[in-house]
Write a structure and sequence with these properties.
Length: 77
């Protein structure tokens, strides 16, 4: 085997192995990420419920409704 062919073969093997290692690491990272847990979903639901309760129990809710109604009436009299 000539020197040029040997260098080319070695360089190719190094690049293929580097690509393989990078791909395997990326796949392992992705497999480790399982997504949201039930606790995270419960936290989001708790925040939404708190906002709805705040709006429903104060004048803020009625103020929002009045402002939206006023704007809708301006667009479609």
């Amino acid at each position: 085997m000539s020197d040029l062919m040997l260098k080319t073969a070695v360089a190719t093997k190094v690049r293929v192995n580097g690509w393989k290692n990078t791909t395997v690491e990326a796949m392992q990272r992705r497999a480790a990420d399982k997504g949201q847990t039930a606790v995270e979903y419960l936290g989001i639901i708790a925040v939404v419920v708190a906002i709805v309760v705040l709006i429903a129990s104060t004048n803020i809710g009625q103020t929002i409704v009045n402002k939206l109604t006023t704007q809708i009436n301006k667009v479609a009299p």
